Amino acid sequence: MASMSPDVRTARYSPEELSRLLGQHEPTAEQAAVITSPLEPRLVVAGAGSGKTATMSDRVVWLVANGFSAPDQVLGVTFTRKAAGELAQRINRKLDLLVESGLDLSPVASEAETEDGLTTEGPARASVSTYHSYANTLVRDHGMRIGLEPDTGMIGEAQSYQLVSRIVRAYEGDLGFANIPASTLVRGTIKLAADCAEHLVEPDEVERCLAEKQVFGENLPFSEKAVEGSNATVTSVFTMLRLRRVMSELVVAYRQAKHDAGVMDFGDLVRYAARIAQEVPAVGEIERSRYRVVLLDEFQDTSHAQLELFRGLFGVDGHPVTAVGDPNQSIYGFRGASAGQLFSFPHSFSVPGPEGAAGPAPVSYLTTAWRNSLTVLAAANTVADPLRSEPVGGIQVKPLEPSPVAVEGEVRASWLPDSEQEAAAVVAALKEAARQDLPVAKRPTRAILCRTRSQFEPLMETMDAAGVPYEVLGLSGLLSVPEVADLIAVLQVISDPSRSDHLMRLLAGARWRIGAADLVVLQERAAMLARTRRRSPGEPDGGETAEQDTSPEEDAETSSLIEALDWLPDPHWTSRSGRSFSAQGRERLERLSRELRYLAGQTGLDLTALIRLVESTLGLDIEVAARPGQSGVTARRHLDAFLDAARDFTNGAAEGSGSDLTAFLAWLEAAEEREKGLGIAGVEPRHDAVQLLTAHASKGLEWDIVAVPGLVDGQFPGKTFDTWTSERSGHLPWDLRGDRHSLPQWNTDWENQRDWAGHAVGWFLKGQKENYPDSYKDSAAVHHLQEERRLAYVAFTRARTLLLLSGSHWRGVTKTPSTPSPFLQELLDSSRVHITIGPWADPSEAGEENPFAERRLSAWWPFDPLDGPEVLVMDPAAPDDLDRATALPRRARPRRAALETAARWVRDADPLRVEADQTEADQTESGRTEADQTEAEPTEAGDDEPASDLARQVEWVLERSTPVNHRGNLVELPSHVSASTFVEMANDPEALARQLRRPMPRPPAHAARRGTAFHAWVEDHFGSTGMLDFDDPEDSADHWVEDALDLEPMKQSFLASRWADRVPAYIEPPVETTVGGVTLRGRIDAVFREGGSPREPNDPQARWELVDWKTGAVPSGRDLEVKSLQLAVYRLAWSRLHSIPLENISACFVYVAHGTERALHNLAGEAELEAILARAVMPQRD
């Protein structure tokens, strides 16, 4: 490939000349060096915010302008669709500007390229894809070469969980040695299957490796002297090995099930692609001839299989592959990525030398930080210094340098006496910085980045109390929101009788408030039932007072509070300790038991319908609606987001599979475990609310102001972490991973079981640890600290101008004081970082004991359940003197007033219900007063007894038989609805209201799947012709094109249409807009543009055409008029999003099955849409 390398001296245009021609800033010297580098392998180490996307796009422009490559000979690959879209848009926009400028591009437009290369009508398009999507294309085109059937379908995450869930339920092997919930086993099996795929390891290799370790350990003597604790350590390691072997067996079954069904999952996709690259040299030749230049973005996040894929295709003869990445931002090791992999690139993609000798690829650097202020950048560099202490693989990572236009900025550090005061300080600082005097669009964006989700709740409570709007981002964060956590607790309980942990949330929660004494009795009842189960059939029942040959620990391990709740004893039952339920406590437990039994009987409902039923049964919809200072739709945002997640899971499930609650819960647990989880798709910083998310999820995002609380040693950096020897994890043994040489390893060469197991889990005899070499767990802890340091670097570099860092002397109710995180202390000790010191608590002033550990709280009872009790902190010197107590802060705006105002509005709007409502209110108030006088125990659960199954069925029938005009508007719309739901609402508001009020399962929609499959094919069509490949298999995998869907006629019809040869400006751009207080959302199938300036990506003077592909019948008359509202919503949203006049935007439906277009010329405007919405949601009266 030496002949392909251009002589930079022959280039006609320099990067600086092209920048002036394109009207952009000239590149730095580092950027220019990358842009003009020869066509050979190269590693570019690009720090956070160093302009790597701009540099990569300018590299393509320089190559094209100087005739070294055609644009469609360039392949760009990155991880997310957002990043791919940004890179593709920059490249193709600049290519358009080159043509408009009249630049001589004739050397590129050869005779063979007059149609597909650069012509007078415009340049070809660079191909930009995600890593998964590129593998998808490779397997689709060449899978048969490795024996893969051409009709092999793709299953998504939802179907994977469903399939493994069924395999786990059908498993007949021994699991008695491990007390493990089914959902945990499902999650572990999927993790191990993914690890095997990412590291190109067969499950039988895992089985052999684990078996060898187990046999070796079993053949060792225990120890010369047994000591306390060592037995449990050895047992846990043997349990881990046996359980992991079971998981490897389940992985084999999972692979076989996929083979039998003719499907593959994401891991298989990359595994098969790597096999093609390694085993079929002809494919590499095809890809290298197709793409003269390859750009690999975010290379530090690639897995071993992805490295082998691209090395197999492009890692020969010095093919020009440029990998761009930042080892300091490698934070996804939990999913197979490795920071060490980036350093291996120069040797994996070597450069041919004289006489056939090969040398490592050269390394370039981008070190100018364009995002961060001076002080923020200094802080980020300081925390990353230890990561640069020594070169790795001959590569020395350089610190970032400030940009010429960087402002001073501020890093403010605070140390508070306790975590409550820390949360208050963080929220107060963000509230002060909100700049309420500015228009919303000009206010600074703000975010709180937490190390763990456990930090969310006190921050949310504080923001609630302070009246600060906030948004929780990411599914893992969403799971910690109280109303969502309550929903999940019920779903877990009705799905798995072993989940007593989730039942405890309900028992001790605000709704049922079971007292401590009754909880003890319930546990004793559970232990009694467990002993009864263990008793052999012929053994006489000696009663609760008989001596039992069991320990309390054994009772605890085998008992189930759910079972005890389901089998409550008669009112006179007494435990063997002489305890019995209180009358009030037992009555509440009976009601809760009936409610859970009813809900458990409804698990056959569609998943989203079940969740809505649980939500209404728990009264969560009413609870959140009563939140002050928020509209109903805003208050519901977290419930709606959870419903969206369930809907996404259901949409990804196999057609006709119904609701698999176990699989859904396993999927949620995996998301919860991935609080490290991947970046959040489709998120944009907001000017009107604080965004709350984990540090892991913040990668790729940026805000003006960022707060990082919890910077205490033990929390950030955390001390707990998973290794492959963790008992219930599904990790691949690290000695089988492709990056094993950069990971610590378990040394199993010991003389006794105690030391052998102790090295695996870091357990040693006191006083003897110094006699051992570093244990695997200790080495893994050092490795973990480096990962935590990289995470801190990522978090700090998200801030543009203000970085708020904080910690607290006391955390929660811990009795050991906290010390500042080493990351925070390093900043305080550094002379390079100018730190503004905020509130700083001296340890001596914070006291020697945690005031929260023994803090006594009191509250008045009874209290208004809407606003909660007034909580008082009692003075330790006078614990019974209420006059000396201090009240805790309450909500900024009480709920009671808001709810009564809302109730008054409802009564004013619906006079038909006033009398009935007033009577009901009088009766309820009377009932409450009587209850307050007769029940003195402060654990009252409320007065509304759940209806029986029959009563509920009667209620449903009566509701459906009652005319809408006699019910009034009893349904509140979700915080957002799709454009298609808006169409349903306009067409038949009563039907939609019934579905929202009482969701019923809908039959599987074959037509919908057919439409989705066709849309995926269209996206792929536009991607394969050189436009951005938006078709990421992570989104479309569950709707693979199947022969049964009969897509071929529609494909041929599309290819014969005028659309097939046009290049869209956007494919499936998401849009949203607010109409009448309701947010309408959707995705436009394709957006085409004509005219306007190529310098303006969204030129309002251009003509824009919005297209929606339809696979069904062609409507007419009233039907077409109603359906056109979908296009009207898209048109309004596109106009608002890009400030384009409505008259410059047209829209049409394309009915591909019939070869027909329907252009709509009189689409509804904003006022008309608002009127339609008002008519749809308001009750009609006679």
Overview of the structural elements:
The chain is α/β, with parallel strands linked by helices. Among the domains are: 2-139 and 272-366, 3-Layer(aba) Sandwich (Rossmann fold), CATH 3.40.50; 153-261, no CATH class; 479-534 and 550-673, PCRA, domain 4; 976-1177, Alpha-Beta Complex (Lambda Exonuclease, Chain A), CATH 3.90.320. It contains 42 helices and 30 strands. The protein has a seven-stranded parallel β-sheet with strand order 15-16-14-17-18-13-19, with helices on both faces. It has a six-stranded parallel β-sheet with strand order 3-2-6-7-1-10, with helices on both faces. The chain has a five-stranded mixed β-sheet with strand order 24-27-28-29-30. Strand 11, helix 14 and strand 12 (401-402) form a beta-alpha-beta unit. Helix 6 (157-169) packs across helix 28 (661-673).
Secondary structure layout plus pairing:
Blueprint: H1 15-22, H2 29-35, E1 42-46, H3 52-65, E2 74-78, H4 81-101, E3 127-130, H5 131-142, E4 153-154, H6 157-169, H7 182-198, H8 203-218, H9 230-261, E5 263-264, H10 266-279, H11 281-290, E6 293-296, H12 304-314, E7 321-325, H13 339-348, E8 351-352, E9 358-359, E10 363-366, E11 368-369, H14 374-384, E12 401-402, E13 410-418, H15 419-432, E14 446-450, H16 456-466, E15 470-472, H17 475-478, H18 482-495, H19 500-508, H20 516-534, H21 552-558, H22 561-566, H23 583-600, H24 607-618, H25 620-625, H26 632-635, H27 637-651, H28 661-673, E16 690-694, E17 703-708, H29 753-761, H30 776-796, E18 799-810, H31 822-829, E19 835-840, H32 843-846, E20 857-859, E21 871-873, E22 886-887, H33 895-909, H34 914-934, H35 949-961, E23 976-978, H36 979-987, H37 989-997, H38 1006-1024, H39 1033-1036, H40 1048-1055, E24 1066-1067, E25 1070-1075, E26 1078-1083, E27 1086-1090, E28 1103-1110, H41 1117-1138, E29 1145-1151, E30 1156-1160, H42 1166-1177
Parallel strand pairs: 1-7, 1-10, 2-3, 2-6, 4-5, 6-7, 11-12, 13-18, 13-19, 14-16, 14-17, 15-16, 17-18, 23-26, 28-29
Antiparallel strand pairs: 8-9, 20-21, 21-22, 24-27, 25-26, 27-28, 29-30
